[in-house]
C-alpha cells in the first residue's frame, strides 16, 4: 500500500440506522464499572468518543472510518520522554506511515526509523531531515543502499558480512549499528529468528568493519513486539553493554550508541504493564552497565496504536449452525488486518455500549463478527458478547493505529478504509 492510499479520502454514501445519536454517548459523565480490562477500555472509550463527537464524525464521513487523532501521538511521545528522558526517539515509520503522523512526530522533535525507499520518500516529501533517520533493515539490495545514501541517510543497521560489504562501498561519512539477536519466545512477535547476529558473529562483524574502514557507532537489538515484562530488556541491555566493553578492550574501537529498538506493549484485549514499570527497569539496567552511551529507541506501535479508532457498521446478519453472525463493512483484509498478520485481538464494542446506561443482560448475545469479503478466513472474532445488533448498527474498536491500514489489501475490490484526521488536543474528562 502506498502512503498516498493512507490519506484522508471522501467517504462513500452509506445507509445509516434511524438514530446514530443514540448509539454513541454524548455525555462524559457516565460511570461504567472498571473491574476488568474490557470495562476499563470501554469506560475510557465512552469518554473519548463523547469528547471528540465521534457520532457526528461518522455521520459526516460514513463508515467504515478510521479516526486518527494526532494529539494522541504527541501524548505517547511525551510519555516515552517522561519515562526514558535520555533516549532519542526514532519512530518506526512502518507502523503508520501517514503524512499527519509524520508531521506530528517531526514537529515534536523526534526522528524516524525506515526500512524502504517508499518510507524515505514519504519523509522527504514531508520535509523531514532524512539525515537524522536510521535505516534499520539489515538486508537491502544494492540499489536500496545507494538510494538511502543519496537521500541523506548516514546510519545503517547491519547483521551479516554480506550486508556490511554492500555498505563498505559508500563514502566514509557513514557508520553502522550491529544488530544483535536475543530470542524472546514470550513476545507477541519474536523478531530474532529473522534478523540479528549472535554475539560471536557480532564480534566478527566489528573486526570486519574495522578492516574495511567502516565506522561502528554501536549496537542495536529488538526484544520482540508486545514485550510485557522488563526482563528481556534487562538481559539484552546487560549482554550488549558487556559485549561493547569487551570489544573496546580487545579491538581498541570506541562505541557510543545503544539502540534498544521497540517492543513496548499496548493493551488490546489484555492489560499490559504501565510504561513506568518498564522504563524504571530499563533505566536501572543502563545505569548498572556503567557506560554513558547515547540511547536510541525505535517505537512504532506504542506511539500510534492509541491514536486511531475504527468505526464499522453491520451490513447483514445470519443465524448459522454455531450461532448468530454479523457481517461488517470492514474486516481482516482491511483495518482488522492486524488480527491476521500479528495475532493481536482488538476489542470491539457496540456503539450502544458507550452510553451511560448498561444494556440489560437478556439483550446481549454471543456472536461471530465477520468481514465483508467472500473469504471464509475473514472472521474478526468469535464468541464476542455484545448487545443484540441489527443492520446499520455501529461498532467501535479503539487502539487501531498500528499495523492496520498499512497491512490492509484491496482483496475483493474493496477500497481502503478512509482515514479522517483530527487533533483533539488535551482532553479533560
UniProtKB/TrEMBL annotation:
Catalyzed chemical reaction(s): L-ornithine + H(+) = putrescine + CO2
Pfam assignment, any one: Orn_Arg_deC_N
Enzyme class: lyase
Region called Disordered, residue ranges: 1-22
InterPro entries cross-referenced by the UniProt entry: Ala_racemase/Decarboxylase_C (IPR009006), De-COase2_N (IPR022644), De-COase2_pyr-phos_BS (IPR022653), Orn/DAP/Arg_de-COase (IPR000183), Orn_de-COase (IPR002433), PLP-binding_barrel (IPR029066)
Highest taxon in the source lineage: Bacteria
Residue stretches of biased makeup (Polar residues): 1-10
Domain named Orn/DAP/Arg decarboxylase 2 N-terminal: residues: 71-305
Alphabetical UniProt keywords: Decarboxylase, Lyase, Pyridoxal phosphate
Family, per entry: Belongs to the Orn/Lys/Arg decarboxylase class-II family.
Annotated protein name in UniProt: ornithine decarboxylase
